[in-house]
Amino acid sequence: MKRFNGQVLKKMCAGVMLLTGAIGLTSCGSKAQDSYKQALSYSSDGDYDNAVKCYEDAISVNPEKAEYYIDYGFVLMKTGEYSEAITQFNKAILSSDDNIVEPDNKITRTNNKKAYRGKGIACFEIHDYENAVTNLENALKINELSELNEDITYYLADSLKLCKRQSDALKLYEGFLDNAKDKAAVYGNMAECCKALGNTDKAIEYYDEAIKLSPDCYDYYIGKYNIYLEEGDEQEAYKVVESALAIKDNSDKAVLYKGELYYMTGEIEKASGYLKQAAQDGYYEGDYYLAKIYMIAQDYDNAITCLNEYISSDEGKRSAGAYVELIKLYISQKDYEKAKEINDIALSLNNSNYDRNFRYFEIAVLEGEGELEQALEKAKQYNEKYPDDEDMKRELVFLGSRIGNTGDDSDSQEQEG
Known about the structure:
With 417 residues, the chain is mainly alpha-helical. Among the domains are: 27-94 and 108-142 and 152-163, Tetratricopeptide repeat domain (Serine Threonine Protein Phosphatase 5, Tetratricopeptide repeat), CATH 1.25.40.10; 164-246, Tetratricopeptide repeat domain (Serine Threonine Protein Phosphatase 5, Tetratricopeptide repeat). The chain contains 21 helices and no strands. Helix 6 packs antiparallel against helix 7 (149-162) and helix 18 runs antiparallel to helix 19. The relative contact order is 0.04. The model is unreliable at 1-26 and 407-417 (pLDDT under 50).
């Protein structure tokens, strides 16, 4: 029998190991790719639950593929899992230390653009508009996939508008108006920007343009109505409502709008009927307006019930305004436990436009529960973040005096004892 010396044997073993490793890598890569293709198939069929499982399988086998994370992120958005989608997009973003947007590798730049776009849209959907702007702007800085730029710019303009940068948003809307597929929607957004900037004449002009192009869209009438109402021109406001109510639309969505319109004109009985029907038909925004009607009637229990119904729905679970109303009701009822529970959920929304409200409620709840030292600590943190709030500065003095008086009382009791 022929024998091999030790050195030859080592070389042969090394060769076998390399070959085995290559076969293993090929097998793993093939398995990951198979799962990825299956995920794409499920996704195209709208079977997102199975798509999620296949993406997870592909990533577990090959966690180095940015494409897997990107497509997984977009499927998660389809299921409403926006925060988890952001996590996946973050995993896909690759960059050099000195240039986060333009790494040397073209494939990396392409993947980064997709990931920044996805992350920006996900931030937009959870109302984190400032981070949406940052990520969408990063996506636009990358030259690859220029065909995505129009879509990205639309989201960027909407995000700028909603984080109160209306001048910047208006410039973008004006820039793509001529080539827009839905010019009415662009005019509507331009009207909102002009209203926020105090140019109400221009806002009305843009709403009129939107109504000409899309005369059955209630939103444009409601926007125009609000301008006239705020200017004290009730006669013109009422004319706008009459025009909106004359729209011949028997859809379930129209029932909701009619309820809102009757609520705006103070026809509460009619409004209630339409809004209750809308809520029953699955348009849970009806519950939000019903809550307002109950609050006017000081029927706070029913108002709380309606607001809870609304924030439990897909359309209402990220409505920061609804959380604000509900928390205020719980605090007014001195139900601090429920107020804290809802406020914790609201804080998890990471809504920069309403963060101040929820931080303030956090302090109010602690104060209501008698946790004065914790309330004072939260008030200090709030004051650091929002130093322009004069009410909180007074609250800080008040809390400090209460804690001081509590301490003095206990000291005097000890001396008397």
